[in-house]
Amino acid sequence: MGACCSNLCFCLWPSNIKSHVLYSSDIENWAENEQLNLPAFKEYGLEELKAATSSFSVNNIVSEHGEKAPNVVFKGRLNGNGRWIAIKRFQSSAWPDSRQFLDEAKTVGQLRSKRLANLLGCCCQGDERLLVAEFMPHETLSKHLFHWDNRPLDWVMRLRVAFYLAQALDYCSSKGRELYHDLNSYRVLFDQDCNPRLSCFGLMKNSRDGKSYSTNLAFTPPEYLKTGKVTPESVVYSFGALLLDLLSGKHIPPSHALDLIRGKNFLMLIDSCLEGHFSNDDGAELVQLASRCLQYEPHDRPNVKSLLTSLTSLQKEKDVPSNVLMSIAHETTSPTQVSLTPLGEACSKCDLTAIHEILEKTGYKEDEGIANELSFQMWANQIQETLNTRKSGDSAFRDKDFTTAIKCYTQFLEGGNVKSPTVLARRSLCYLMIKKPQEALADAMQAQVQFSNWPTAFYLQTAALFTLGMDSDARETLRDGLSLDFRRMRQ
Questions:
Q1: SS3 of the chain
Q2: Global pTM?
Q3: Does the pLDDT at position 241 exceed 90?
């Protein structure tokens, strides 16, 4: 990384932009060759999306402008497969023509790239107009640049954001979607691996919202103020404003930034929180690139391919994962991305039917070797009655009479000194079945106390925590269970 930027200097115009040879695998084919585990675009039912968002509860709003925004974004989880989704809900007047909405959504839905938060589907019922996209768990670039809690965004990560964003725009252009509406730091999201992605929502413009740019007029491309139309050059202008955000850690109006650059006061653009931890040359090139993007005349701005060429050479520490650069623990988000056991997968999806089948089939083999002694009094007087109670619970569990199973298992556990993590696991699932996740969590935790290295106890806690809406804790517990499973496999 390098020295402080005190000696930063450069010519303002394109003559000293380096020419870089790009391999096709780096730019042209990276998106085409990637394997994305995504379903085909589909039309969702309104009731399905209501169920996923608790009837569009305000508690599920994730758009940073909140419920007063013209188009609100909700976080949701599909009941069928447990996939997390982001749902953009338009005002009823935004798309009066349902056919136009569906056609636009289907076109955007054909795009598939690891640089996009991809569109999975839409819903068009009555006055409802909703877009469904991949959910990105690590928030927006705006949050990490302007409202960070622990540490500012690393310089190398800022360069990666610019590069990935240029790749996203290049991919969209190659698929005939050159126009992106209101490109800004709210539109850049971070996925489960903390890789930056461009929201697909900006690829669709409200047909009747009266404008494409919702940000302050100081950040709007000059030609848009004249014509009201977005062009590919307008997108490049907005990209330049984003480069200023990355450079400064602030939302600086482009006109002010250009005045600083022309007056040789460009050092004032550099985020003081970086404390000199960036390369002089890299800083100079990025400032110059931003200034080219922000030229008043559209024909003076570079195209997306040129941006990509310039940003390629600035990439550093390519083998370091983004989550490491951002000091964020890696998220285990879906069983398609990690090798979970069937029980771990079922619990990560809260698939209670599958959990029931697995627990029933597994039986009590995990109780072997666990301290399971009966007191002398039980051997003398109570053993048969105690075992019969457990058998009754097992019979009810098998028949899916979960209320009766809970009653019998409770009697068994309270009837003596028998220690059975399997009974606790089965009762935990019973509580989940009758929608008592707090009690289910308590049983799963007690099973862990009795058998500290049992993955099943952690997986059941995962299901209970997800049901309680404690997603971060659930993912952490899922990782613990997975770690124990891997440890067992290696033994």
A1: CCCCHHHCCCCCCHHHCCCCCCCCCCCCCHHHHCCCCCCCCEECCHHHHHHHCCCCCHHHECCCCHHHCCCEEEEEECCCCCCEEEEEECCCCCCCCHHHHHHHHHHHHCCCCCCEECEEEEEEECCEEEEEEECCCCCEHHHHHHCCCCCCCCHHHHHHHHHHHHHHHHHHHHCCCCCCCCCCCCCEEECCCCCEEEEHHHHCCCCCCCCCCCCCHHHCCHHHHHHCCCCHHHHHHHHHHHHHHHHHCCCCCHHHHHHHHHCCCHHHHCCHHHCCCCCHHHHHHHHHHHHHHCCCCHHHCCCHHHHHHHHHCCCCCCCCCHHHHCCCCCCCCCCCCCCCCHHHHHHHCCCHHHHHHHHHHHCCHHHCCCCCCCCHHHHHHHHHHHHHHHHHHHHHHHCCCHHHHHHHHHHHHHCCCCCCHHHHHHHHHHHHHCCCHHHHHHHHHHHHHHCCCCHHHHHHHHHHHHHCCCHHHHHHHHHHHHHHHHHHHHC
A2: 0.64
A3: yes
